[in-house]
Amino acid sequence: VPTGVLQISDLLPTSMDRDNEGIHLSLVIPTYKERDNIQNVIRILSQLLDELIPKDYELIVVDDDSPDRTWEVAQFLTREYPQLRVMRRQKEKGLSSAVIRGWQVARGRVLGVIDGDLQHPPEVLTQLLSGIQQGADLAVASRHVEGGGVSSWSAVRRFLSRGAQVLGLILLPGVLGRVSDPMSGYFMVRRRAIAGAILNPVGYKILLEVIGRGQVNEITEVGYVFCERQEGESKVTWKQYIEYLHHLLRLRLSIGRSGRMNEQTGFPVGRFLRFGLVGLSGVFVDMAMLYLLSDPTTLALPLTRSKIIAGEIAILNNFFWNDAWTFADVSKKQQEWHQRLKRFLKFNLICLAGLILNVLVLNLVFNFIIPNRYIANLIAIAVATIWNFWVNLKLSWRV
Ligand code: GDD
Ligand code: MN
């Protein structure tokens, strides 16, 4: 198994990709410190599935070597529940990779996931299963459709959850726009929809990977109420929010490069984001150079002269990163050194024009539209950035 990426078909006999072998459902239960929940979870899920699809399912607990020895309790339960399998991971950690590892050893034609803390009501499994039965490739339990909700979340957590969703919608409309609750960790997917897909195991939200990288056509959603946690505690900290941002950007950039998403948005979002990040790095270079050149404690050059040099060095910085990263995919011919030089001169001129535009827009907006200089400046910067991006895209890199 290659590091960094996980392929669902790894570790599986190829025959398992066929629909008429193995069992119907493999339900993965990722756990970390769920000692007080695991027995109830297994008991309730087994009871339910024994009625729905007797012997045609398996439960796979994937535990990350919990210090409370959840894996040991789960292992003990296998005596009583023959459909239960337990994986104790000692080298790897993380929710998404736990789910993927579970699916890798799964034998089901349908792959599912459910939390191991009873916050996902087990009854919903019935509807998820019938959604798949009726032809969906993916059945998602959702808090945001009829019958869905959260029991008693604080205003802060609701806000963070919705904010994360809106941000994701802006960055990845083609992925997050397809379901009402893209943060759900309770769903089932047909194996064949993700067999062979390379899923990135970073972060908490595996559903984004499934929709973004799988071949998912029909999706159905089932409402559910996210219950209160009875035992143990949530593992979500600020770190998961950072990881989520990282995940979104990563998915955005990689899908953007394959060109799939661009068909839907018409605008090269990934490239624009990279261009914007490079621009931001230029601000820091400009600031640092201005300090080095003009500060009384350093070189103490006159301000205007310092600014011109600082600005040019920032432009050089930006050009370098844009050429090496934002537009790394230009043709071989365009990589010759005199082509690069030509591009650099064009980039300089266009950025200079951008600066003039920046000043013009600032004055225009400030005097006639919004009499707040900082808001006006933000608008001016946005206009200049789009100008810089678009004109350089068309004239300098010509992609
Ligand atoms: N193996 C493993 N490794 N399991 C983990 C890890 C890990 O690093 N972190 C968390 N888990 C397990 C927990 O034990 C639990 O069974 C499940 O994953 C969910 O973790 P919680 O910490 O209880 O998450 P939550 O309830 O705050 O968050 C949930 O938010 C969604 C709603 O937006 C998500 O995890 C979703 O599943 C849920 O639908
Ligand atoms: Mn939980």
UniProtKB/TrEMBL annotation:
Quote any Pfam family the record assigns: Glycos_transf_2
- What is the protein name for this chain? Dolichol-phosphate mannosyltransferase
Family per similarity comment? Belongs to the glycosyltransferase 2 family.
Q: Which GO terms describe its molecular function?
A: dolichyl-phosphate beta-D-mannosyltransferase activity; metal ion binding
SUPFAM superfamilies named among the record's database cross-references:
Nucleotide-diphospho-sugar transferases
According to the record, the segments passing through the membrane are: 272-293, 347-369, 375-393
Subcellular localization, as worded in the UniProt entry: Endomembrane system; Membrane
EC number, as in UniProt: 2.4.1.83
Q: How does it sit in the membrane?
A: Multi-pass membrane protein
Write out the entry's keywords from A to Z: Glycosyltransferase, Magnesium, Manganese, Membrane, Metal-binding, Transferase, Transmembrane, Transmembrane helix
Indicate the principal place this protein occupies in or around the cell: membrane
The UniProt record lists the keyword tRNA-binding = no
Q: Name one GO biological process term.
A: protein O-linked glycosylation via mannose
Q: Domain named GtrA/DPMS transmembrane: which ranges?
A: 274-396
Question: Glycosyltransferase 2-like domain: which residues?
Answer: 26-192
Note the InterPro entries from the entry.
DPM1-like (IPR039528), Glyco_trans_2-like (IPR001173), GtrA_DPMS_TM (IPR007267), Nucleotide-diphossugar_trans (IPR029044)
What this chain does, per the entry, is described as: Transfers mannose from GDP-mannose to dolichol monophosphate to form dolichol phosphate mannose (Dol-P-Man) which is the mannosyl donor in pathways leading to N-glycosylation, glycosyl phosphatidylinositol membrane anchoring, and O-mannosylation of proteins.
- Superkingdom classification of source: Bacteria
Pathway noted in the entry: Protein modification; protein glycosylation
**Annotated GO CC locations:** endomembrane system; membrane
Cofactor(s) required for function per UniProt: Mn(2+); Ca(2+); Mg(2+)
Q: Which organism is it from?
A: Halotia branconii CENA392
